[in-house]
Structures are given as C-alpha cells and as structure tokens.
Prior knowledge:
The protein is an alpha/beta fold. The protein folds into two domains: 4-191 and 383-401, Rossmann fold, CATH 3.40.50; 203-381, Rossmann fold. The chain has helices at residues 18-32, 73-91, 100-113, 129-135, 146-157, 168-177, 203-216, 237-250, 264-273, 291-295, 314-320, 331-337, 349-361, 363-380, 383-400, and strands at residues 4-9, 36-41, 52-55, 95-99, 121-125, 162-165, 185-187, 223-228, 254-259, 280-284, 300-303, 325-328, 342-344. The strands form two sheets. Strands 3-2-1-4-5-6-7 form a seven-stranded parallel β-sheet, with helices on both faces. It has a six-stranded parallel β-sheet with strand order 10-9-8-11-12-13, sandwiched between helices. Helix 1 links the parallel strand 1 (4-9) and strand 2. The radius of gyration is 22 Å and the shape is globular. The protein starts with a strand and ends in a 50-residue tail after the last helix.
Amino acid sequence: xxxxxxxxxxxxxxxxxxxxxxxxxxxxxxxxxxxxxxxxxxxxxxxxxxxxxxxxxxxxxxxxxxxxxxxxxxxxxxxxxxxxxxxxxxxxxxxxxxxxxxxxxxxxxxxxxxxxxxxxxxxxxxxxxxxxxxxxxxxxxxxxxxxxxxxxxxxxxxxxxxxxxxxxxxxxxxxxxxxxxxxxxxxxxxxxxxxxxxxxxxxxxxxxxxxxxxxxxxxxxxxxxxxxxxxxxxxxxxxxxxxxxxxxxxxxxxxxxxxxxxxxxxxxxxxxxxxxxxxxxxxxxxxxxxxxxxxxxxxxxxxxxxxxxxxxxxxxxxxxxxxxxxxxxxxxxxxxxxxxxxxxxxxxxxxxxxxxxxxxxxxxxxxxxxxxxxxxxxxxxxxxxxxxxxxxxxxxxxxxxxxxxxxxxxxxxxxxxxxxxxxxxxxxxxxxxxxxxxxxxxxxxxxxxx
Length: 450
C-alpha cells in the first residue's frame, strides 16, 4: 500500500497545456508505484481516465478553461480552498502536493485550519508568480501591485516543507533570487510516456502520417515544422511566424503546423498578413491523446518560448518523438538537449529561421540527430525516474517535520539531499514568516523556456 496524496491544482485540469501534462505525468508515475492520488482542481477541465478528480463548486457564468492569470481566479481559488479542505477532512492525506503558488497557499491553509501537521506540504514550482503575471500583461512592474505581489510570492516560497522544480535553472532562481535554503529545493524534471510518444517505427505509423497530412492539406513534398502548445507572445508565437515569413523565399518547401490555443483566429490573420496562407496551418487545440500522431507528421519541432521562469515541458515530448528541436539557447533548454539542440539566439526570428533552414536542408543529418535525441529521451526521461525522485522528496519532507514516512509496499528510490532543519512550529508546520531580505526588493530570473 502506498501513500495517500492530495494534489491541489489551481487550474482547469485537464486542458492539454504543459503545466497539466506535468501534473498528469506525476500522477501516472505515482499510480504505477501503488500510491493513491486525489486531485482537487477548478470546476472546468476535461476528465482523465483513472484519475480521481474532485472539482470545486460550479460557476454557471464561466465555463471556459482558465489559462494563465485572470481576475476570475480570485474566487476560483476561494472555492477551491473550501473543496480542498472538505476533501482533506475526509481523505486524510499523508502528503499534500500543491501545484503553482496558489496551490501552495491553499495547501498551507489546510495544514493550519485542519491541523494536518503530520502531512508535509510539497510545493510544485512551475515558474515565478510575478513573472508569469507580467508575461500575461496582468501585472505592471512599475505599478502599485508589483511589490505586494512579489512579497506574497516570497512568503509562499517559504511555506512548503519541500519545493520541487522542473529544472535546475528554476532551482537556482529560488535559491539565488528568493533566498530559499538549498536543502528545501529539489529538481524533479519533466518526464514523458515513452510508449505513447515515439517516432515513426512501423508501416502502420507511416500510413497514419500520410493520412493525417492529407487530412490537414499538407502537400506530400513539404518538410514539416511542428509546434504544440499555447499560442501567445510570451510563448514566442509571433517570432515563430516571423521566422516562417523569412523562409518563404529561402526554403519554400518548409511547412508549419502550429497546434494549440487560444488566439487561433488572430494568429491565422497575422499569418495571412505575412503571406503565409499556403505554408502555415492552425489546427487549434489538439487533445493530448492525439498529440503523438500529430507530432509524428513533423520533420523538425520548434519551441521559441520567451517566458523568463517557466519550464520546458514541450521539449521532452519532442525528444520522445525523435524530433530535432529548434529552441532558444537558454539554461533549461540545454538541461534537456545538451549538445543535441539546435540553438537560436534568444529573441531572434532570424536566428530561428537559420536553425530551421540548417536542419531542413540536411536530410541525413536530421534523421541521425532525431535518432540520438530519442535515445537520450529513453535514457533520461522515463516515468520511473519521476517516481524515484518524488518518493525521495516525500521521504525527506517526512523527515523534515519529524515524522517517519508511512510504510509502503513500493520500492523507494535514492534519498534526497538532506540538510539543516527548517524552523517548525509545535505541530511540525514550517514557519514561512522567517523571510530573509532580497536585495533591492527585486528578482532577476534567468531566461528559461517552456
């Protein structure tokens, strides 16, 4: 018998975004190891087979999926807090695993309100709260709400017994810019289902690719560049289209399949204005279960994300599919791809176009690079690695609050790095108000892509 884990996901889980894919892969990894997982999330989102999802109170006037920052999240989070408290009261979790800053704040409230001091709080950090709000143009760095929001972010970063991040770069941001003690933070990278995401490896796969290309209206002689994710300026969608425009004359056989949402119509209009009608298509939101076969139509994948602190969840999926990846040269991209990435100068559409042209012009080299990338994915990105790392973090969190980990029937992984104890209250709850100062009240995260 495994742990009883209550996840708190203040988002419209499941909605085919990178954040949600990370949550789902963690759930699957834990389930395969025999742990019981319950997910508390917003009232909107798709059901997921064999995942116990508990949704907050329905809001009849707002049914759409919530992506990124929104004023609606204020009351969404309030209702999720009540739902999470009710679930915790009945479920009696061994562990509270909270995603995003809002989830960590809700999880900390549960520990105080329900006195769940024996259940450690794990904060799954997926990027800076203030940076994300700036990316979504929801917060102005020079406005009156920036400093209070930054103060709140620092406070939340101190609430958890352990923090996990999706990249070593994010771990360094927490240590350097938010002064989080190094023993409180562990990197648990994004992983992928290697059986589901794989290259073309059979005649059946090749026939499926040909049918899908025909359905999408892609000429058989075109070389296909695929993108899968959210469409937004901070995701680099504008730069992607600029790069495609630069290749109109230089490489007319290049064809772009830009999959995702929101803003499909507006980006389709922009592509038409750039004269890309016959070389760029926007299939819209692709259900996650269909993502593998859509990615297999690609010769090259691209991820030009501009966000300063978020992860790089697209890259593992591209790698598992055996696709060479064009991305900006950032620490998190190199964490995944090392010397196998095709790196463009940060923020440059010209550089993106040059890297795409290099790959698309070299058929033999591109195929060999894809093979090496798939091999690296098989070695580094399997679910078994996530399970081992999460279980190690959980054990360290139990140790931190002075409680032995519940006995389980699973094989536990290598212990996480240990360090000095954090300040605890008498019930074993970390005290987040012991906050060090951050120089000049500012943070300067390293560039990081998702």
